[in-house]
Amino acid sequence: MAKKEMAKNDNEPKEHADFPLGRENYKLLAIGFVIIIIGFILMAGGGSEDPNQFNPEIFSFRRITLAPLVLLFGFVFEIWAIMKKTR
């Protein structure tokens, strides 16, 4: 008798979709995506108009140290946002 009741409950339409992640997870994923975009923006630039002229600005602290650290933090934040359990 219990099997019939279980089968009956499985065929009923669900009121809402069961997403693998909760609303909070998706908000955190969006925040992590913004952090990654900021890291790429920090890394951009430093080129020279003349390809025969060297521009030492390409080796600035912002591009060599800060931007990769921001990117690393963004990717770690994304992993944490996916793994975080919802309430």
Helix percent band: 55-70%
Per DSSP E runs of 2 or more residues, the count of β-strands stands at 0
Quaternary status of these chains? Answer: single chain
State the order of secondary-structure elements, H for helix, E for strand.
HHH
Biggest pleated-sheet summary: none
Please state the average pLDDT score.
85
Radius of gyration, rounded? 24 Å
How many H/I helices?
A: 3
Low-confidence stretches: none
Q: What percent strand?
A: under 5%
* Straight-line N-to-C gap: 34 Å
> What's the domain count?
1
Structural class: mainly alpha
Estimate the global geometry from the Cα principal axes. Answer: elongated
Structure in words:
The chain contains three helices and no strands. The chain is mostly helical. It has one domain. The longest helix is centred in the C-terminal third of the chain and has 23 residues, at 61-83.
Short structural summary:
The chain has helices at residues 2-10, 23-43, 61-83. With 87 residues, the chain is mainly α. Helix 2 (23-43) runs antiparallel to helix 3.
Secondary structure elements and pairings:
Layout: H1 2-10, H2 23-43, H3 61-83
Pick out its properties.
61% helix; mainly alpha; 87 residues
